[in-house]
Amino acid sequence: MLVKRIRLYLFILISCAVGYAWLLFAFFSGNTEKENPIEVCLIKHVTDIPCPSCGSTRAALSLLHGNISESLVINPFGLIIVLLMTVAPPWIFYDLVTRKDTFQKYYISIEVFIRKPKIAITFSLLVLINWIWNISKGL
Amino acid sequence: MDSQKVDLFVMTNGKFFESHQVGQIRDRLVSLDDSKWNIVQTLQFKDPTVSLIVSLLGGTLGIDRFFIGDTGLGIGKLLTCGGLGVWAIIDWFLIMGATREKNLTKLQQMM
Q: pTM here?
């Protein structure tokens, strides 16, 4: 259990670090809310159709500039990612310092909650609607 | 448990586990009580090959992680466009091992 917890915490911390590095890189490479010079999305490269999370970098950047409504219009996923990236690292550090497992317990309970059929279907529909919206926006 | 039954289980389900784990699984099953046979026999495991196909087709959307029951990681992959495309490619090579590990966890929970 301890090994699993450390693995999960390390993985999330590294992902957040990569996320912050990516945001910094996008910020300094002239990636504005409207223009996106660097595209890494496999789906968009192969099919020319944006994926459900296309535009979340732009949404996160515009959120950092304080334009919440504009960020939601670009992609609501950006807000979720920024929230996760700000909440997760301090929580994990708190757990590591106090040797508790509150984050892991919460993570597992969220997993169990989302796996319930009704919740899973609702979330899938929301993602699908967001995807259709992304395609119609032509991100 | 009867070693014949255990061998039958290992023969039919061996592909769902890492090869180095099969010996250990066999030993554990042999030492297990006979009453658990019905539960062990009816366990459903995820096929690593199917998860690889899912990963190749829908890895960028995190469907492979959802498929093997890693909901949290699946959401992570979905939100970040397959970890900026990099994680999706890494998972093509890791997903079969991850599936086998999940299968082992499932079997261990029953034992």
A: 0.83
The 10s digit of each residue's pLDDT in A112-131 is: 998 899 999 999 999 899 88
Taking contacts as CB-CB distances below 8 angstroms, the residues of chain A near B88 are: 42
Best residue of B64, B75, B81 to probe chain A, by most A CBs closer than 10 Å: B81
Domain count along chain A: 1
ipTM: 0.82
| CB proximity A79 to B under 8 Å | no
Name the residue range of residue A7's domain: 2-137
Beta-carbon neighbour count of residue A55 at 10 Å? Answer: 25
**Cβ pair A51:B60 closer than 8 A:** yes
Q: Which of A42, A53, A111 sits opposite B72 (nearest CB)?
A: A111
With a CB cutoff of 8 Å and minimum separation 6, the contacts of B77 are B59, B60, B61, B62, B65, B83, B87, B88, B91
Looking at chain A, how many residues does it have? 139
